[in-house]
Amino acid sequence: MNLILLFTMIVASAAFVGIAMIVTRWISPRTFNRQKGETYECGVPTQGQTWIHFKAGYYLFAILFLMFDIEAIFLFPWATIVQEIGMSALVGVLFFLFFLILGLAYAWRKKALEWK
After folding, report:
1. Phi-psi region of 42 (alpha: psi -120 to 50; beta: other; left: phi over 0)
2. Whole-structure pTM over 0.85, yes or no?
3. pLDDT tens digits for range 70-99
4. 75 and 93 in contact (C-beta within 8 Å)?
């Protein structure tokens, strides 16, 4: 019984994705404009070379910011129910914070947080 249900779910999900792709291709506009291929910067035409390289430090700094932003997102719900769950919630969040601080220490040691 479970195998039939699993097979039905796989077929239904594949059919849903296929139908969505077909309908999207069917109703999407097909006009081409030269401006669509240009780089867009807030409506201002670009001057000079548009494909410039950025330092990898910017991306690494952004990833570190997202990492700590997600930490805050996970800690707020935990803080609201910590008394209901008890000691297991405290141990779980301590593991979470340990690995997060370990990642921060690694980034700090690799000097990823320095602007040069």
Report:
1. left
2. no
3. 888 888 888 888 888 888 888 888 898 898
4. yes
